Amino acid sequence: MSYEFDLPMPPSINGYRACVRNRLITSKRGRDYFVAVQSVMDELKLSGEMIEKPVMISLIIHPRTRAKFDVSNYLKAYEDALVKCGFLEDDHWIEYSGIKKGEVIKGGLLKLRISV
C-alpha cells in the first residue's frame, strides 16, 4: 500500500519546542502545526489509519525562502503530527528512502510518498 500527499511546512525544531519552568513542551507554533496537519489528514480521510508497521518515506521539502536550512530541523514536527492525527501508531516505524530539498514554494510544503 502506498500514500502520496502534501503537508504544510512544519516549524523548525528551534520553534517547535519551548522550555517552560524547566520542562520541554510543544510550543504554540508546534500545536498550531498539529491542527493544520490534522485538518489535511481529515480531508484526505487518513486520520486514524493507525499504521503499526514499518513505513518507508520519500520526502521533498519545499522551503518558504531561499535561505539555507538543515533538513533535519524540520523532521520531528511532521513525524509527531502524523502520530498525533492517528496516521501512524508511533514515529519509530518511520524509515527514509530519501530526503530532498525542492524549489521554493510560498509558505513552504512537504511532499510525502509513503510505502507500507
- Residue-averaged pLDDT, rounded? 95
Count of helix runs = 3
Structural category is: alpha+beta
CATH level 1 class label = Alpha Beta
**Main sheet attributes: strand count, strand direction, barrel closure:** 4 strands, mixed
Number of domains: 1
CATH topology: 60s Ribosomal Protein L30, Chain: A
Helicity, as a percent range: 25-40%
**Order of strands in the sheet with most strands:** 1-6-4-5
Determine the N-to-C terminus distance.
5 Å
Quaternary: single chain
Question: Going by CATH, what is the homologous superfamily?
Answer: Holliday junction resolvase RusA
Number of strands: 6
Strand percentage lies at: 25-35%
The value of Rg in angstroms is: 14 Å
Low-confidence stretches are: none
Question: Keywords for this structure?
Answer:
3 helices, alpha+beta, 4-stranded mixed β-sheet, two-stranded antiparallel sheet, 116 residues, 6 strands, 60s Ribosomal Protein L30, Chain: A
Written overview of the protein:
By secondary structure, the protein is of the alpha+beta class. The chain has one domain (2-115): 60s Ribosomal Protein L30, Chain: A (2-Layer Sandwich), CATH 3.30.1330.70. The chain has helices at residues 13-16, 28-43, 75-84; strands at residues 2-8, 17-20, 23-26, 55-62, 94-101, 109-115. It has a four-stranded mixed β-sheet. The protein has a two-stranded antiparallel sheet with strand order 2-3. Strand 2 (17-20) and strand 3 form a beta hairpin. Helix 2 (28-43) packs across helix 3. It is globular, with a radius of gyration of 14 Å. The model has no long low-confidence stretch (mean pLDDT 95).
